[in-house]
Amino acid sequence: MKSAYYYFFYKLYKFSEASPSRWLSDWKASLATDILILFVFSSIINYYKAFINPTSHIGEGSLLLVTIIIVSVWNYFIFHHQDQWKEIVRDFDKLPKRKNRIGSWIIFSVVFVIVSNFLLSFYFYYQL
Hints:
- It is a single chain.
- The protein is an all-alpha fold.
- Helix content is 81%, strand content 0%.
- The protein has helices spanning 2-17, 25-52, 62-80, 84-93, 97-127.
- Helix 1 crosses helix 2 (25-52), helix 1 packs across helix 4 (84-93) and helix 2 packs antiparallel against helix 3.
- The longest helix has 31 residues, at 97-127.
- The N and C termini lie far apart (35 Å).
């Protein structure tokens, strides 16, 4: 699981490196990871409110802020503390090209599913 999370960061890092600005690509990849985790968390809350308890106040206000802080601090210590991201990138750069291409499609699919699920959760939340 840890290796998959590192690989997810690595692919987002490589995507950031391919953008016109390579400045702070490690932080952009970390921010993208934070946002996708928040999308998953928000989706769960939306589904809970839509299907289980529509009058619930879960996810409003401080809970979302606490989640953002926890996820950001978590990713800081995993990737940026003592520049651990450099070793992660160096290790995954050694993968064969074919494996990396397959991994790219898997990561793209996971990101697509997370974003689609996030949008669908809002659809269900506002329909009910």
